[in-house]
Prior knowledge:
single chain, alpha/beta, Rossmann fold, seven-stranded parallel β-sheet, 46% helix
Amino acid sequence: MTPQKIAIVTGGGSxxxxxxxxxxxxxxxxxxxxxxxxxxxxxxxxxxxxxxxxISFDLNDLSQIPALVESIAQxxxxxxxxxxxxxxxxxxxxxxxxxxxxxxxxxxNVSSVFAMSREVVKQMLKQKSGVIIHISxxxxxxxxxxxxxxxxxxxxxxxMTKAMASELSxxxxxxxxxxxxxxxxxxxxxxxxxxxxxKQKVLSRTPMGYLGETADIGEAALFLASDGxxxxxxxxxxxxxxxAIGF
Length: 247
């Protein structure tokens, strides 16, 4: 059976990216996962099965992104869904963040997302359809201390989502974002378990009272990529157990 849709998920080897890829594959969407860690990617691909392909690629290499996307389009004939999930974080006091630190986060979290989107849009315009999903963050909505560069990058993603949706929706391409709340991943577990005070703060202001799972983000991405969301564009969907409205 030929899969109906072709998706790209960046940072698809682990965490939220892998959870999104799992939901896509379970729903017969052929999913290409892209990431830097070849070993991690191959392991993920093996677990996902024949509806998955893995490409080891450093998205910081902007000049090579057009060729990457072109080769995917050539091989698979089309690109229906792009999930821009790859991103990096850094926790440092504001005065300790160097210009290089700041640029490095913006480069990965904003510039490579833009370059991937631009190249995929060129393909989507040919078919007059497509869905782009950015992974934003609660950091774009809160004033979280010690993550200034990450916050700036995710705020840029929120703005790009709206601008892209405005420009591309009339052409058949929907653009949305998902803003995960506090999700149980290896990365967050490390951060919260080492900081009981922060963990308590997170849970006490989350009305549902527990951390989300990566599968919750997978479900949201599957919905936004589906025809069930065909009249939804330009939104940032919070998947946060109510954290943003918690008191």
